[in-house]
């Protein structure tokens, strides 16, 4: 899990981490209702998505909450909120990890102000999957996490700034490691 | 977008492996869902964008006019983030917002409307004061779980009725006003009252949300 902060992830110039200050919140009631509905449906999946990158549940909640706080400020302009939230949540995770490397600095308050997550007691097999993913190179984790959430290799490649073939290769390697762990677990059970 | 992308199935157990991955994914999602307070998280984002209102009666006619006019405008704009939410976590904020707005309207109306409207305004501000007091009672009663559903809804209904009376009283005086500044203040007060009425609809939904079938409120977080 230690290489999260060192991951080489291209940051797209057209999509700054800080949104445009002119738009502070959705202007219509319909947009706010849509945001609230989307928060409820996407937030848990976004947390799990970040966890598949090697984050624990609280880090993942913090990253996902931060992404939604930014999304709130530009919700009406987002064309692909599912992908946007995933990209931004991942960057939040990287920033969190980078910030915590400097232990002497105070951690500033994050947008949202609270972590709404209780502790999550993982099942053995869920913990195994996350443990294996956490031991993989970041590109493999990313390829797996995006594929698991239903994005094609082409879409993932566009969002991550990689070649589609590289996405497929990384996905195949991640699956190979996971399958090996699965088979070992089954052998152990037998 | 919640299942693993399945590669071609073969005899190497790929299908069983994918089933296992899907099952662990579903299990993890269910655990995270049950451990996450989505209402609290959403309300935190909404509340972060709400600027606190600052209404003080300043000195100097032009300065005071600008300051109070801006305060009323800010109060009106500040209602929007609390619409479209009906949760126990939003309710204290919604009630605070509604009560705070009635107080702002009272201060602005008292300070900016001319003496010639004192009679009309006296009537209108009585309605506002009633609304403010009932909103405070409503919040206190819900937080202390001392109100039944019927009592809470009755209080809410009286606030809605009081707001309608306020609007009618102000509108009548605005129609009769001759100077532009008075009309501007009156129209802004009416617009704020209309927005407040909209917020009251969402407050009613939030109140209904916190009562279960027994008519007893579930706990309302301190706002």
From TrEMBL, chain A:
Q: Which InterPro entries match?
A: RNA_pol_sigma-70-like, RNA_pol_sigma-70_dom, RNA_pol_sigma70_r4_t2, RNA_pol_sigma_r2, RNA_pol_sigma_r3/r4-like, WH-like_DNA-bd_sf
Q: Where do the segments described as Disordered lie?
A: 1-26
**Which GO terms of type biological process are on file?**
DNA-templated transcription initiation
Keywords carried by this UniProt record: DNA-binding, Sigma factor, Transcription, Transcription regulation
From the UniProt record, which GO molecular function terms apply? DNA binding; sigma factor activity
Keyword Oxidoreductase recorded: no
RNA polymerase sigma factor 70 region 4 type domain segment(s):
128-178
Q: Which residues form a coiled coil?
A: none
Q: Does the keyword Transcription regulation apply?
A: yes
Report the superkingdom from the record.
Bacteria
Family per UniProt?
Belongs to the sigma-70 factor family. ECF subfamily.
Spell out the protein name for this chain.
RNA polymerase sigma factor
Organism, by scientific name, is Streptomyces sulfonofaciens
Q: Which gene encodes it?
A: rpoE
